[in-house]
């Protein structure tokens, strides 16, 4: 008798629910709009703050000559004897400025103390560097050495990842690089006992030299 009454109560509730009008459905979201709010800070300031918060080392350079001076001092202070540079354009300007580097792959595995590469773009909102395999540095120079040095220009700064990928698409068209990677600070992991370890899967340090190429 009790079970029959319980069943009737359940069925009555179901019938009442079906008799009600359909619940209000929210409008379909506009997927063409950004999920982020507007950026209120200058892009360069936002990038620098976020990049440093991600444990990156940020070096502002007023111009290309200032970059040479800052790089020379950085190498001297950090005792970098083996700076690997494989991009022809970078090798040319470093050679002209008198900065020593290793432009070959000789003893790379055993002596890869530091590397210097360019990048595709800088993402202000996440403080990330977009690198690819399209240049002569390939994949290894941004991953294997303990220190990854990057030189970029202020004109490469974009607000979000979307604009960075659009830039790459416009640059390479249908011949996209086989590897695109967003680097947000040094390599880190906390997989083992939740202890943060730097450099477990890549460089322990990420250093960015940002050259101001904007003219007044």
TrEMBL record:
It comes from Rufibacter hautae. SUPFAM superfamilies: NagB/RpiA/CoA transferase-like (SSF100950). Coiled coil: none annotated. Pfam families: LUD_dom. This is LUD domain-containing protein. Gene3D superfamilies: NagB/RpiA/CoA transferase-like (3.40.50.10420). Transmembrane segments: none annotated. Residues 110-211 form the LUD domain.
């Amino acid at each position: 008798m009790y079970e029959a009454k319980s069943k009737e109560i359940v069925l009555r509730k179901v019938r009442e629910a079906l008799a009600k009008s359909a619940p209000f459905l929210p409008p379909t979201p506009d997927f063409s709009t950004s999920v982020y709010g507007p950026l209120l800070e200058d892009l360069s300031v936002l990038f620098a703050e976020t990049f440093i918060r991600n444990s990156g080392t940020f070096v502002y350079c007023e111009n290309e000559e200032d970059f040479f001076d800052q790089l020379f001092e950085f190498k001297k202070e950090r005792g970098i004897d083996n700076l690997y540079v494989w991009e022809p354009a970078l090798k040319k300007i470093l050679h002209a400025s008198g900065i020593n580097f290793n432009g070959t792959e000789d003893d790379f595995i055993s002596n890869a103390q530091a590397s210097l590469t360019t990048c595709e773009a800088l993402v202000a909102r996440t403080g990330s560097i977009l690198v690819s395999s399209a240049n002569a540095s390939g994949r290894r120079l941004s991953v294997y050495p303990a220190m990854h040095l990057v030189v970029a220009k202020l004109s490469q700064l974009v607000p979000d990842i979307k604009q960075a990928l659009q830039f790459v698409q416009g640059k390479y068209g249908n011949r996209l690089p086989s590897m695109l990677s967003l680097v947000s600070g040094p390599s880190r992991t906390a997989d083992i006992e939740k202890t943060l370890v730097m450099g477990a899967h890549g460089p322990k340090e990420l250093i960015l030299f940002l050259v101001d190429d904007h003219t007044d």
